[in-house]
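Case study 2.
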Amino acid sequence: MRLAIGDVVRDRTDMVIGTVARIDMNEAGRVVLTVPGGFPRLVAVADLEIVSRYSKPPTAKLHLAAVLVFLIALLTSYIAAHSVQLLGGSWLLTFMAGLGAYEIYSIGFRWCCRLTGPRRFRV
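Prediction:
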């Protein structure tokens, strides 16, 4: 299981929901949860069930980067599809060239967001 600070988890023993406050790895494999009321609680990793993941809200810079990547991807897609069409390619080849050019930027942006996102620890 991969956990990050701030993930919401459920303790299977008594069905209490809490957020991960600290990850202590020792021989017992315990995780410190903050349960409602602000009380810390030690829970075994085997007794945890993930309810939801923590994610940072997107910033204005990330929105701007997403829009720029989208516009660059559309421009590149148009250029690739138009070039294939001018070279005499069929409609399928034209479509695939445009789709491939768009997906290069789309996949790159998703991987960049994933690599710079919150760290997860294997417990």
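Strands lie at 2-3, 8-11, 16-24, 30-35, 39-44, 48-52, 121-122.
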